[in-house]
Amino acid sequence: MTKPSKFSVLMSVYWKEDPRHLFECLDSLVKQTIPSDELILVEDGPLSEDLKFVIEEFRKPLRIQSIRLKKQSGLATALNTGLTYCRNEMIARMDSDDICLPNRFELQLNFMQSHPDIAICGGFIQEFKSGLDSSPRIRHLPLEHAELLKFAKKRCPLSHM
Fold first, then answer.
1. I need a surface site. Which of 5, 73, 74, 93 has the fewest CB within 10 A?
2. Residues 22/97, Cβ–Cβ less than 8 Å
3. Domain range for residue 39?
4. For the whole model, what pTM was predicted?
């Protein structure tokens, strides 16, 4: 990697999220080989005390900036709101139940810096029911430009569950 880039992580959480999943998600961010500059966490409506506790556990190490929406507005509204708070040009998107491999950001930043003509970067995902050891399935998506254009006519070519 030429030089470390500052980047933001953007995430939304709402009251139905399992606190254990959020804990695993945030814990995977702490373990990144290249940490984010900030985590913009949009609280989409009121949260349970358990979710608030998990967020507070990670507030300092992840530099969490919470944006609180008074009522649940949905993922798109929450993310668009959070996007306005991101201070960096590069933004990594995560769901509150995603678990990153420790080198996710390092690999993606390396790729983006090596390919300045690329505006967006995704990756394969490993789907699982509970924990990474529970019969995972790799979800493959197109990698080449022509394949992406063809695929995008029917479905989103970026992993998002």
1. 74
2. yes
3. 7-101
4. 0.86
